[in-house]
Amino acid sequence: MVQNHLSRIASPKSWNVSRKTSKWIARPMPGPHPLNGSFTLSFLLRDLLEYAKTIKEIKKVLNEGNILVDGVVRKEHRFPVGLMDIVEVPKLNESYRIIYDKNGKFILTLMKKDEGKLKLLRLIRKTIIRGGKLQLTFHDGRNILEDKFSGGVGDSVLFDLHSKKVSKILNLEKGSLVYLSGGSHIGSLAKVKEVLKSKDLQQPKVLVEIDGNEYITLMKYAFVLGKTKPEINLEVKK
Fold first, then answer.
1. pTM score, two decimals?
2. Residue 4 and residue 156: Cα distance in Å, rounded?
3. What pLDDT is stored for residue 61 in this prediction?
4. What is the CATH number of the domain that holds 20?
5. Which range of residues forms the domain containing residue 193?
6. In the prediction, which pLDDT does 1 show?
7. Does 138 share its domain with 166?
8. Between 19 and which of 8, 59, 70, 215 could a Cys-Cys bridge form, CB atoms 3.0 to 4.6 Å apart?
């Protein structure tokens, strides 16, 4: 049985929390993101947005339906949110996207109005199911059925949370602008120089350029943002 809490000292490194102020912290419930790639709504409201100080205040905010995740009202304070999720606070007319900073800590980026409800998803699996349809599985656990899809594993898509459809495919290819979600250069913007072919059972890799220097990183860390400029805003909330 999964516990509802975990030791602050043992909490994921991506959580920017004080680890010695108290012993326990709420543990994310099973959901769209793994434990080491997510944090709770209580952490979001208390530590990142600073809209509440106690669990009682947090539950009141959530129970009133004030927080939406990817367009859906969430009332469970342990609900997990993670990379590229969109958090909305309708009463304050605020929308945020979750990313990592260059220290690997979760931070918020303020979304622009012209971005609407477009969520960036990375394709991790593409399979043919009964009936000949394509089942697309993305990094946040989302599954979408399509008749045709020209993209491949490693590509990103802009997903419209209103229509529940893919609005644009962003291919991982030479010259693409990517955001790195892991490795030594986590949180950095990079330009793809080459998509490297994997050998044997090795994980696919890409050669990227950051500030004039070239590095090799795992393909699973590369979120395609666009060809020449980002399709989404990455301005960090101050």
1. 0.88
2. 33
3. 95
4. 3.10.290.10
5. 177-226
6. 39
7. yes
8. 8
Does residue 222 belong to any structural domain of this protein?
yes
Beta strands in the chain (DSSP E): 5-7, 24-26, 38-40, 68-69, 72-73, 80-82, 86-89, 94-100, 106-110, 118-128, 134-138, 143-146, 156-160, 165-170, 177-180, 189-196, 205-210, 213-218, 222-226
5-7 and 72-73: which strand pairing? unpaired
Q: How many CB atoms lie within 10 A of CB 97?
A: 23
Convert the pLDDT of each residue in 68-89 to its tens digit.
Answer: 999 999 999 999 999 999 999 9
**Counting Cβ atoms within 10 Å, is residue 161 exposed (0-12), middle (13-18) or buried (19+)?**
middle
Quote the percentage of the chain above a pLDDT of 70.
89
Mean pLDDT of all residues in the chain? 88
- Using alpha carbons, select from 184, 152, 186, 11 the residue that is nearest to residue 83: 186
Task: At 126, list the tokens.
Answer: 């593409």
DSSP state of 188: -
With a cut of 70, which residues of the chain have pLDDT below it?
Answer: 1-3, 5-12, 16-24, 114, 116, 235-238
Q: Are 58 and 66 in contact (CB under 8 A)?
A: no
Contacts for 144 with CB less than 8 Å, ≥ 6 apart: 135, 136, 138, 159, 164, 166
N-to-C CA span, the chain: 39
What b-and-e string marks burial along 185-214, b requiring 16 or more CB atoms within 10 Å of the CB? bbbbebebbebeeeeeeeebbbbbeeeeee
Instruction: Identify the bridge partners of residue 6 per DSSP, sorted by sequence position.
Output: 25
| Residue that is written with structure tokens 């393909």 in the block | 219
Domains contained in the chain, number: 3
